[in-house]
């Protein structure tokens, strides 16, 4: 408390507020770097660049403050869904889901997804990062280097494990404290099925076949510790970092092929702000491709259909949309049991087929029922729990399409869940393993019985899967990093064919990581900042 510079000092909030009020009331015509989007990746990029006091950084965010109980109280995360902190995207009717239009929530406001998500911290599998390195042609995206980044950025609160966990970084990560008895039962159930149980999920468990563990969470002193809170908030009193909320980015401004600024609407007022060194798009996997397209970067034919002047033909923009589709299986509790922490404290990864090189199934226990709008009609118990059982390696690919020349108009989101028949086969294996787990001996003391799906076979199981499918909220891969003709950014996250424009968010993933996506987004932000500092001597 004596350290005046610490964000925990009682004086800090006042100083930060006064500093930002001063900076935002005197916006400059240009900054060194403009970071668009204060979500999981954008928060990291802005902070890391602003660590050099000579670099003027402007961080633009369409939403508002994160200073609300709905954000900071970990138990209240579901209350943000459908609120003004949610972009409220909805996928188009999906013929593979009997025409269902799946809601695709994404965070709007400081912290982006990391301010409304379930706070699970999950690093991705070793093989994900090896694939990133191969696609990028750069070993610095590989597992060993990324493991080093994780060690550097974490402030790990669990039992010491220096090979895997760091303790000196900005991201406070803790194992869920005093987990619910049903979270512990899940680990016991895994043991019954001969699935290994680990001390934490972010080490050896994600180097091999998978396993089960108590969840790591971004919660500090009982409050959500979003990536915005971890990275940007402690920097709000610095004169070289301006954080502008209610600032909707519409387009990147080009001079020839060089990005020289952005066009935005701030509190209803249109403006253009210049960027001397570069622009970084960190708007998330729906909005980054959207802004690219409206700026003239995308599939030439699609842009021309809407009369958008083409700056660079990149047919991969908005393609390759991936997500971890999930199927909830629900049990009724014999006695009410209040959810603890975020209500999701145990996790498991496993393979549907032994020959796979990594787990393709992802399970997060939720300590209350989470049906889809369809499966809710099958009856939801007053007291129950759901296994959010998902595909960690989906084969289906969706895409985003322009619908209008107007940047204010939404894109059409074709999520295409289960469009690849292999995903339906894996989903059946996923539900089968989920039922074996939930019906294991370990849960008997707590559970009255299985509510859904029950022992379904053939068409009935197929129907359940298509009715139950929902997003895991891991939208990604729509501006992928790589070296083929569908790639949008290179290994340094530079948009192909133009200068001074990078993408740093979940869009750049070539393939969605095996697990929850915010931790990989932090790594993407770290890599982006590192490469910009290197390239521009920042
Ligand atoms: C309900 C929910 C639960 C989830 N649970 C987990 C979990 O427990 N663990 C986990 O690891 N992951 C979870 N995720 C996913 C994770 O939060 C996201 O993958 C991650 O936040 C994506 O980071 P990003 O930087 O790509 O985009 P985001 O974090 O979405 O950030 C994008 C930012 O850009 C802003 N923005 C968008 N368009 C504009 C514009 N035109 N102008 C200005 N600003 C704009 C947005 O408001 C947002 O702040 C969850 C997501 C949701 C929605």
Automatic annotation (TrEMBL):
The keyword Nucleotide-binding does not apply. Keywords: FAD, Flavoprotein. The keyword Flavoprotein applies. Residues 107-130, 284-298 form the Glucose-methanol-choline oxidoreductase N-terminal domain. Its cofactor is FAD. Signal peptide: none annotated. Pfam families: GMC_oxred_C, GMC_oxred_N. PROSITE patterns: GMC_OXRED_1, GMC_OXRED_2. Coiled coil: none annotated. Belongs to the GMC oxidoreductase family. This is GMC family oxidoreductase N-terminal domain-containing protein. It comes from Rhodoplanes tepidamans.
């Amino acid at each position: 408390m004596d350290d005046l510079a610490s964000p925990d000092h009682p004086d800090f909030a006042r100083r930060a507020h006064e500093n930002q009020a001063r900076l935002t009331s005197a916006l400059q015509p240009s900054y060194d770097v403009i970071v668009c989007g204060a979500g999981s990746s954008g928060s990291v990029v802005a902070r890391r660049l602003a660590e050099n006091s000579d670099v003027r950084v402007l961080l633009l965010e369409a939403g508002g403050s994160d200073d609300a109980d709905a954000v900071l109280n970990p138990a209240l995360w579901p209350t943000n869904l459908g609120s003004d902190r949610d972009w409220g995207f909805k996928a188009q009717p999906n013929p593979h889901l009997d025409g269902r239009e799946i809601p695709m929530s994404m965070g709007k406001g400081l912290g982006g997804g990391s301010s409304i998500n379930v706070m699970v911290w999950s690093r991705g599998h070793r093989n994900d990062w090896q694939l990133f390195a191969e696609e990028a042609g750069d070993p610095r995206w590989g597992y060993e280097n990324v493991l080093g980044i994780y060690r550097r950025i974490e402030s790990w609160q669990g039992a010491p494990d220096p090979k895997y966990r760091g303790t000196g970084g900005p991201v406070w990560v803790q194992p869920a404290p005093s987990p619910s008895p049903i979270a512990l039962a899940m680990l016991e159930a895994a043991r019954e099925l001969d699935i290994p149980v680990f001390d934490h999920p972010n080490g050896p468990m994600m180097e091999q076949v998978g396993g089960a563990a108590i969840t790591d969470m971004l919660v500090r002193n009982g409050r959500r510790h979003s990536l915005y809170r971890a990275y940007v908030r402690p920097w709000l009193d610095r004169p070289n970092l301006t954080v502008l909320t209610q600032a909707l980015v519409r387009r990147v401004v080009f001079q020839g092929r060089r990005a020289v600024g952005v066009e935005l609407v701030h509190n209803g007022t249109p403006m253009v702000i210049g960027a001397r060194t570069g622009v970084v798009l960190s708007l998330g996997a729906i909005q980054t491709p959207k802004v690219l397209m409206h700026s003239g970067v995308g599939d030439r034919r699609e842009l021309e259909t809407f009369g958008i002047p083409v700056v660079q033909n990149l047919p991969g923009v908005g393609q390759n949309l991936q997500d971890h589709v999930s199927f909830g299986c629900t049990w009724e509790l014999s006695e009410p049991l209040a959810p603890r922490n975020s209500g999701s404290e145990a996790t498991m990864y496993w393979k549907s087929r032994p020959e796979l090189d990594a787990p393709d199934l992802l399970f997060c226990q939720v300590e209350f029922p989470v049906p889809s709008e369809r499966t809710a009609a099958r009856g939801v118990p007053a007291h129950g729990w759901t296994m959010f059982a998902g595909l960690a390696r989906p084969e289906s690919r969706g895409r985003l399409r322009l619908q209008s020349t107007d940047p204010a108009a939404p894109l059409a989101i074709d999520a295409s869940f289960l469009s690849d028949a292999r995903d339906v086969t894996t989903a059946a294996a996923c539900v089968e393993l989920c039922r074996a787990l939930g019906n294991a001996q370990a849960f008997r003391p707590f559970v009255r019985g299985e509510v859904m799906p029950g022992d379904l076979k053939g068409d009935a199981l197929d129907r359940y899967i298509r009715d139950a499918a929902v997003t895991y909220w891991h939208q990604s891969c729509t501006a992928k990093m790589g070296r083929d003709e569908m790639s949008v950014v290179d290994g340094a996250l530079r948009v192909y064919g133009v200068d001074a424009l990078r993408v740093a968010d979940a869009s750049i993933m070539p393939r969605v990581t095996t697990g929850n996506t915010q931790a990989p987004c932090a790594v993407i932000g770290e890599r982006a900042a590192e490469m910009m500092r290197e390239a521009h001597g920042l």
